[in-house]
């Protein structure tokens, strides 16, 4: 008898991939959904279970610790099955409890005879006794860590950075499902596209439309290049360059290529040179540029952003974008697994890389030219401290103060968007002008 794939069996496979093999949740999920015969509704359930279980992992583990003697004695798949079942029982109102328990029991039985008894016992006990109270945790940071499923180091970091009240608002916002966000490539069609997609205007970006949820990549408007998927916060980067059309622009850390294409859309006789270390990513840039009708303005090169000055001469560029590799703390809503990755917390070594890239690219900029430095993180080591350190060690540069009509995203001449303000990704943008040789 062939094994019938169900939404929950697929969710289990994806979560094993994420928790055991350290796969990225978004990549693992897309890969498995692509090859699946499940209905659209079931694929929606898989997505909900996977993202929900990953986003709330620490909370779910704490709950389960009250009902399981020793998790280390359980097979990893069995523990993950209990996690995803606990997620559904606790957070999914539309799914009947008996359906969750029955399917978990069936999955366990199919995987390893006898294991279904434990699954049945644990889940029924949870339903009988109810969920333990997170408020009973005495230590404040530990309590917030469990309540919001954030590691303690990140809880204390964000409190230190933003104060208790704003940090709490950020924590809460990270558990709200990410909006779907697109960039309209021809602004004269924005109203028409907005109506077709039943979307609304982004409060942040003039080119942006947002919707609670939506699968835009499958739409005709996407294939014809009228829209592209890009978070509203990152749509602020290209307009901040104030391009006239003739400039030579360098996009030093171009992956995944959304900002490259956006920059290219402002160019006529100018060109944007996009760098990455991987061929397959450079191919994607070209494909994307082709779809969006800006391929003539984009050239790609396989180069390390830290060695730009070795390949390009002085005065090569009028504008440079360094959208730097960073901890990605601003993307936690979209990529919840980032928060469990220990390297994420290594802000000092990330800062070194960020300054190394800036130190290299600045040697190729003409006098009067502009560097835009951006990240998708909200911690000062990778943002304001980088700005300060760069300007201190490069007296030939001055900071350009950025403006935006949303005054709550402006700080010290930079743009800093935290996720709770507009429900977007967290994002940072700053700018420097070369004033002398």
TrEMBL record:
Cross-referenced CDD domains, in alphabetical order?
AdoMet_MTases
Biological process annotations from GO: regulation of DNA-templated transcription
Residues engaged in binding S-adenosyl-L-methionine: 253-259, 276, 304, 323
- PROSITE patterns xrefs: SAM_MT_RSMB_NOP
All copies of the SAM-dependent MTase RsmB/NOP-type domain together span 158-435
GO CC field: cytoplasm
Does the keyword section mention Membrane?
no
Top enzyme class of this protein?
Answer: transferase
Pfam families tied to this protein: Methyltr_RsmB-F, NusB
Q: Which reaction does it catalyse?
A: cytidine(967) in 16S rRNA + S-adenosyl-L-methionine = 5-methylcytidine(967) in 16S rRNA + S-adenosyl-L-homocysteine + H(+)
Listed EC numbers:
2.1.1.176
* Active site per UniProt: 376 (nucleophile)
Q: Name one GO molecular function term.
A: rRNA methyltransferase activity
Q: What does the similarity note say?
A: Belongs to the class I-like SAM-binding methyltransferase superfamily. RsmB/NOP family.
The entry's function note states:
Specifically methylates the cytosine at position 967 (m5C967) of 16S rRNA.
Protein name, entry field: 16S rRNA (cytosine(967)-C(5))-methyltransferase
**The species this protein was found in:** Streptococcus oralis SK304
Organism lineage reads as: Bacteria, Bacillati, Bacillota, Bacilli, Lactobacillales
Gene that encodes it: sun
